[in-house]
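Appendix B, Record 12. Input sequence as logged:
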Amino acid sequence: MLGEDRLNLKSKLDFKIIINIVKEKIFFVFLIIFSFVVLLFLIFILSDIFLKGIRNVNLALFINLPKPTGEAGGGILNAIVGTFILSLTASVFAIPIGIIIGIYLADANSRFAEFTRLFVEVLQSSPSIVLGIVVYVWLVVPMKTFSAISGAVALAIMMLPVIIKNTEETLRMIPYSVREAAYALGVPYYKIIIRVILPCGLSGILTGIILSLSRIMGETAPLLFTAFGNPFLSFNLFKPIEAIPHIIFKYATSPYEDWQNIAWGASFVLVIFVLLFNFLSKVVTKRWKVRF
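Logged structural output:
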């Protein structure tokens, strides 16, 4: 009787093991299928941009300004320069603020720190067009003009959550014993941050900066309410300025075939820029890992 009970128990256990294995296999198959579907959509989008865009990429696209309506040809030199000006100016605003807040959140456990984390998460999930409208009210209306500085502020706000989160998570990976060792030597707190903590977490901080730049380079919505666009080459931060995403939006929605072709070429250029920034972030992460 005892032997039969053991045999039945073993049979039940074997059956449960088989069921669990089957469930695991089914889950794995569904995981592969859904991953393949997502990858397939990405391949279709990128292949469409590459095939239609590369045919319209030439030297004239990079060295010429846009032509007036009705004239063939033209380029996106003003948009390329404007994109880099906006990105650089936004970085000047966002990088120091983001790193400082990230350092604070990595060390603090107060209620204010929890509120700040919640605020950062809300900011990260906020629609970019809403941020553009907010900056429009803050800067464009008082200044009574669209400007590059307004666009840069909107993009800087979008950069902040990425930089803050990457800085905080990277610095939290550094053991507290590193700080304690520096404290034991009588090193002031600001020197511990500058000479110990930041060098140890440099890779994560740089990755956050690069990813945030990659994000803002493709944003159009906030620029519609701030930078507005400019058909001329402009270096004045207090005047409207063009950007690649904005010129893509403007040309792609136009009825002119020549402008639509330029939009495809500009899309190709923008995708290459974004892919390069993402590749650079991977290189930085692998070459300079968190050291302690």
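The two ends are 63 Å apart (CA to CA).
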